[in-house]
Amino acid sequence: MEKSEEQFTFKSFFIPLTTLKAIHWIVIVGLVAFFNMLFNGFVFDDFTYIVNNPGIRSLNLSSLVGANLFTTQSYYRPFQEIYFAIVYGFSGSGAFFYHFSSLILHILNVILLFILFKRFFPKTLSLFLSLIFLVHPVQVESVSFISASGNLLSFLFGISAFLLSLKNDLSRKRLWLILFLLLLSYLTRETGILFLLTIILYKIIFKGKNIFRIALYGLGSVLLYGLIRFGAGNDQSGLSGFVRIYSLPLASRIYSIPEIIYYYLKIAVYPVNLAIDQQWVVTSVNFSGFYYPLLIDSAFFGVIFLSGFLIRKNKKNFSAFIFFALIFLSGLSLVLQIIPLDMTVADRWFYFPLAGLLGMIAVVCTSIKLPGKNIRILFYAIGFLVIMLLTVRTIIRNTDWQNNITLYSHDSKISDNAQLEQNLGYEYYLQKNFEKSLYYTNRSIKLLPNESNINNLATFYLNRGEIEKGQQYYREALTYNVYPKAGHISIMKGIYQGLAWTYIYSGQFEEAEKTIQKAFSAGYITDKMWEYLAISQYNLDDRADALSSSGRAKNILQNAEANYVYNQILNNQPIKLK
């Protein structure tokens, strides 16, 4: 008689746990946690870097590596633009495939992290920690926010290089591949340098071979990055938007460090109050903003030290603990505002440190011997519940990222943020919900009056036909200088252009000409202002200069309106304003 086939059970999904089964679970759980994210639209910086970025419309490597939106700020990240150009080539302007690509990258990162963990820990524990890394709500900003996908790419290149370096006998071909992957990591995000540090630390701590060769090739990758960056003419123009902590000196930024560390520890354990574009700062030494977080931070680092002290006799576990602790600390050190960044904190910046934190937790878990089967089952049940809760929280957080209004409406409630309030006002303005637009724009001004939000208020009234009010707020906006130089110049150009138009519309041609000449002398020149200058000069009976200015506007703008103004002046005919 033939043997009956083994009965298939749910238990067989896990036992025995193979690498292939673990990968299947990572993919399944990842799809469950982030499935609703796939149908979200573009949000926040996506409009700057993707929707309105002509640079990604073609895969021209010379322009993608040269001057573009990712290489003309205080950073140099050309591979992000190359990546977006590749995705655009496959998907066009729809958001779905950008989201899908981000999810694939994140899942690949988790698979590689699992492969790394299982070199140190049992497969079951490695899978559990990998799933936490996969579904933790702090990852939503890296996965759901398309513009942050460079974070995922850099990690993918870096961890791939690290895994390749683990072999003791490294061939020249493998070393060149490691160098290439590290270089791609740097060219995607500067924090990719952490993976070179990770490779060297691993070789030192675990007494691996080829330390000198790895260091030499790593140095070569850094030098090559520098040659590409500065050879491409990265102009280091700095930030264009207002960032509160960026504007503070180092001595003042130090006050915020305990609160920054506390923020990341808090969201790792209790990921509830998550928000984009956090601009808070701690401006003085007080209990709630300095001493309390410092106390919590000290207790946390005390636990780390104590854990290392208790497991020091187990050399294997102690070495692993030191290794993962250094990964966590090195990643955390880059986001403490020693070098000022464009937000105070950001969930996506915790992607790398979280891997180190989970590694430390895993070492502590392997050092604890559970007394019996029932206790182990209890721990498995708790672990399953934790993953379920984190997954549900991630699904909920994904819904905040559906569009700009859902994102800004939710996140502006987490903490006072003038920029988010201003953004929300602008979004409602685009939807012609003028009541809400005015409400949120005024909230922004109340929190932090600046040239940008007052300019928005002036534009709001101008488009409502309230010319005098618009003119009033344009003049008020001119008195502010809150934004950094690059952003201030851009905003001032718009303010002067808008103000000149209000004078022309009101028949105040002398004021219009004075305003334009003042803008020109200050360097706030726009192409449109040549047309406005021509109209002003013509109405002030300065036909020769008007013809010269309108001719310039006609050549620069090359549109019907500029041609109309030029022809009217040329033929000595009245100009009818639209």
Tell me which oligomeric state these chains represent.
single chain
User: What is the overall shape?
Assistant: elongated
Mean pLDDT: 89
Number of strand elements? 0
Percentage beta strand: under 5%
Main beta sheet strand tally, sense and closure: none
Output the helix-strand order.
Answer: HHHHHHHHHHHHHHHHHHHHHHHHHHH
How many distinct helices? 27
Helical amount: 55-70%
User: Roughly how many Å is the radius of gyration?
Assistant: 28 Å
**Which secondary-structure class do the elements indicate?**
mainly alpha
Cα-to-Cα separation, first versus last residue: 94 Å
Describe the protein's topology.
Layout: H1 19-34, H2 46-51, H3 61-65, H4 78-91, H5 96-117, H6 123-135, H7 140-144, H8 149-165, H9 172-188, H10 193-205, H11 211-231, H12 250-253, H13 257-269, H14 287-310, H15 315-333, H16 351-367, H17 373-400, H18 404-411, H19 418-430, H20 434-447, H21 451-463, H22 467-477, H23 485-505, H24 509-522, H25 527-539, H26 543-557, H27 560-570
Helix pairs in contact: 1-5, 1-6, 1-17, 4-5, 5-6, 5-8, 6-16, 6-17, 8-9, 8-10, 9-11, 10-11, 10-15, 13-14, 15-16, 18-19, 19-20, 20-21, 21-22, 21-23, 22-23, 23-24, 23-25, 24-25, 25-26, 25-27, 26-27
